[in-house]
Amino acid sequence: LTSRMLGQAVHRATADALDQAYPGRFIYRTRGIDFVDTETGEALELTTPGQVGAHLARPGYGIGVTICTYVLPAC
Fold first, then answer.
1. Other CB atoms closer than 10 Å to residue 16's CB: what's the count?
2. How does pLDDT run across 13-33, given as a tens digit for each residue?
3. Residue 43: strand, helix, or coil
4. Nearest to 71 by CA among 54, 53, 46
5. Is 66 in contact with 44 (CB distance < 8 Å)?
6. Distances (CA, A) of 49 to 19, 41, 54, 56
């Protein structure tokens, strides 16, 4: 699998876990900012530590977006 495919799997698994723990609270999007908390309006971006800078450089990803990082296990 490519790192992009693994990242997509992490995103989907996170969306599923959030929906099970907090039904209907988080909106998951496959384009743009990853998650929006419908109770607080908080925007959440899920990425690896090495991609934080690239994400923050995107339009609309600066102030007000919480960056959540994950690390994939090494093979």
1. 11
2. 999 999 999 999 999 999 889
3. strand
4. 46
5. yes
6. 24, 24, 10, 12
